[in-house]
Design a protein that fits this description.
The chain contains 20 helices and 14 strands. The protein has 705 residues and is α/β, with parallel strands linked by helices. α13 runs parallel beside α14 (479-486). The longest helix has 82 residues, at 94-175. It is found in: Nucleus membrane.
Length: 705
């Protein structure tokens, strides 16, 4: 930017004033010096004549773009200046220069303030213009809506007037005996049933009032709650919280509360919508209610409405119908999800009868299911229901991993607790043929205590039990208590004690383990108990030869006489009414009594019983009931026998544990205890024992300890 005056488009005499920053710059001072020298070079005698003088012209304003960096950034203010004539030889004094600079700076400040003021004025004008446009648009809209409403009501009034005129003309025609020539029956009937204008207004007002009642109640409750909270500083539950709690409790306690609430809301919507339509339409109340139902059922039906009032009412009803339909979809979806979730988690009821019910879960479940499948094979399969406190999917997955053939037997799993009567009823416990209660793995006393509580729950079923109960116990000392609670319905099996006794028998007689496996399993021959009425009043010696395909080995006394089982009774025992015969047979349908065969007489052969010899038995490991096993071995073995105990329990602690278990060393008459400390898994520990001197060796695992 230079100091040279820049002529405006209107006049070459008008100048543009520089910015204040440019006035204080070095270039501005250089230009002042240049003009000073130029004016000094003018001759003194050269004077402008009066005729050369031109009258002063008014200044003009030139708009300068704000983007131009060489001009003043704000709006440029232009002012008129007089042309100064310098005489030759005159020089500008320093004071004049200061005055010129001060005047230029003052003019620049005034121009800046004027530009800011012009910007504010422009913004105010733009805001006022936008406000007036909006107000004009709103006014036009209000006028249009008012005209439409006025037109609607005027047309409605005209229709009513025309209907009144038609009814009057019909009356006149009837009076003039011209009724037969004009078929206006339908018109007369419609005119009679047309509601009055006041009744329609009342219906519209009532619908609006009923619709506003919930909002008024809500505001009132909120106001009361706030006023109570301000008046009372103590912790008092507000009224709106109490109402919310009551509604929540009602929806949670009553199973059909949600569908009932939805039904009531739908009926209220139909009734309010029908009243509102009755107030804005010419139809009857029944037709309006039906039309309201169509709007609720199908939100697209409101497209056929004509007129502002009917359209607003139909749109509101359709919107409420969409909300109602969304709530109904939510309820149906939740109900379906809950049903599938209950099926997945095993909460549904088992509708079966004559099935086998297993309560609990343990490692013995696999072998138990296998034997039940073999036993049910002759019946074409059976139903086994397993209920335990596990997830249904986990139980089904574990059963599917069992590698044996179920032979047509179906296994149904349910998740529940055998201590809850409701869960027991869910698996049809009263219709079960047999109930098996499995012992839990872990502490023996806790397992037996849980089994006792399960028996108490079973005996508390009101419908009664059809089958018998078999309870697995872990400790022999708890058997008496369980039998006392279960009375005649319960049969106990102390698996730990039975397995220990079988191990002692198998250790003394090699090959006996295979016999026990065949008899106690269902793969070959097994025990069966059945009543045969044709054998009543028969001696047991005759019963022994009455079964060609079975071996009788005992009698189960009738329940009226105790229900005990007598193994190998005397030959003179006479079967009474109600007694059952215990036999060993291949299957329950493979044997039956036949006629007594002819027995040939033979000479009696007397057998000589060999004397018992002392034995040496090695027991590796430690069991919780090892004291009971020692007592059994002392009864079976001959005097002078030795029992070597080889385990990791310290020798000084063994005697204390045996005494705590109830063993009396003074009552051991046939065996002598020999203690050795070591681990049966380590070879060098076993080599320290005289293994070749032992008659039998038994080892216990940690699972039996």
């Amino acid at each position: 930017m230079s100091l040279d005056p820049e002529p405006s488009p209107s006049s070459g005499r008008d100048w543009v004033f520089p910015s204040p920053s440019y006035i204080h710059s070095s270039s501005y001072r250089a230009n002042i010096t240049k003009y000073r020298r130029r004016f000094s070079a003018i001759p003194r005698h050269s004077q402008h004549s009066s005729k050369d003088r031109q009258p002063p012209r008014t200044t003009t304003f030139r708009n300068v773009s704000p983007s131009d960096s060489t001009l003043y950034t704000a709006s440029t203010y232009i002012r008129r200046r007089r042309r100064v004539e310098f005489d030759a030889g005159n020089e500008i004094s320093p004071k004049a220069e200061e005055r010129i600079a001060f005047s230029a700076e003052k003019l620049a400040v005034v121009g800046e303030k004027t530009a800011v003021f012009n910007q504010g004025v422009g913004f105010s004008r733009q805001w006022l213009k936008a406000w007036w446009q909006m107000a004009f648009f709103v006014a036009i809209m209000i006028m249009a809506i008012a005209s439409l409403v006025h037109k609607n009501f005027s047309l409605h009034n005209q229709v009513i007037d025309l209907q009144d005129q038609i009814s009057k003309l019909n009356i006149r025609l009837k009076a003039c005996n011209l009724w037969e020539t004009v078929d206006t029956n339908s018109i007369a009937e419609e005119s009679d049933h047309l509601p009055s204008k006041g009744l329609k207004h009342i219906a519209l007002v009532v619908s609006v009032l009923l619709l506003s009642i919930p909002f008024v109640i809500f505001k009132y409750v909120n106001y009361v709650s706030k006023s109570r909270s301000l008046d009372n500083n103590s912790e008092v539950v507000s009224l709106n919280k109490q109402l919310a709690y009551r509604v929540d409790a009602f929806l949670s306690v009553h199973p059909y509360a949600k569908p009932l609430t939805l039904l009531v809301a739908t009926l209220l919507l139909i009734c309010l919508g029908g009243l509102a339509l009755f107030g804005v339409n010419d139809d009857g109340l029944v037709d309006c209610l039906w039309l309201s139902w169509t709007y609720v059922a199908d939100s697209g039906n409101h497209a056929n409405s004509e007129g502002l009032g009917p359209r607003l009412v139909s749109l509101s009803i359709s919107f409420g119908g969409m909300l109602t339909f969304a709530m109904m979809l939510g309820l149906v979806s939740d109900a379906i999800s809950e049903k599938f979730d209950s099926l997945r988690k095993g909460r549904s009821e088992v509708v079966e009868q004559n099935h086998t019910l297993i309560l609990g879960w343990s490692d013995k479940l696999g072998s138990l299911l296998n034997q039940l499948a073999i036993a049910n094979e002759s019946l074409g399969g059976g139903i086994v229901v397993v209920m335990a406190e596990r997830d249904k999917e986990e139980m089904e997955l574990d059963i599917a991993k069992m590698e044996f053939d179920f032979r047509g037997t179906s296994v149904i799993c349910r998740s529940g607790s055998p201590l809850i009567v409701a869960d027991l009823k869910k698996v049809s416990v009263s219709k079960a043929r047999a109930i098996v209660v499995l012992a839990e793995d872990g502490n023996a006393d806790q397992s037996d205590a849980r089994a006792l509580r399960t028996v108490l729950s079973l005996t508390g079923v009101k419908e009664g039990l059809r089958g018998h109960i078999v309870v697995e116990l872990s400790d022999l000392d708890n058997e008496v208590l369980v039998k006392l609670v279960g009375v005649d319905l319960v049969e106990t099996v102390v698996a730990h004690d039975v397995i220990g006794r079988l191990m002692i028998q198998c250790a003394r007689q090699p090959g006996l383990a295979q016999i026990w496996e065949d008899i106690l399993g269902f793969e070959n021959c097994e025990f069966y108990i059945k009543r045969w009425p044709q054998l009543d009043n028969m001696l047991f010696e005759d019963v022994l030869i009455s079964f060609p395909d079975a071996v009788p080995c005992g009698i189960k006394v009738a329940s009226s006489r105790g229900g005990k089982i007598i193994l190998n009774p005397h030959d003179s025992y006479v079967l009474q009414e109600g007694d059952e015969v215990l036999v060993i047979a291949e299957d329950d349908d493979s044997y039956a009594p036949a006629a007594l065969p002819l027995v040939k007489e033979a000479s009696f052969i007397r057998s000589v019983r060999l004397a018992r010899k002392p034995q040496k038995i090695l027991l590796c490991g430690w069991r919780r009931d090892i004291d009971d096993m020692i007592v059994v071995l002392d009864a079976f073995l001959a005097p002078g026998s030795e029992l070597w105990m080889f385990n990791e329990v310290l020798e000084n602690e063994r005697e204390k544990k045996l005494l705590d278990g109830g063993l009396d060393f003074n009552r051991l008459a046939n065996i002598t205890l020999v203690h050795r400390e070591g681990n049966a898994v380590i070879r060098r520990h076993l080599e320290s024992l005289p293994l070749e001197c032992f008659d039998s060796v038994s080892s216990f695992t940690h699972g039996l300890s």
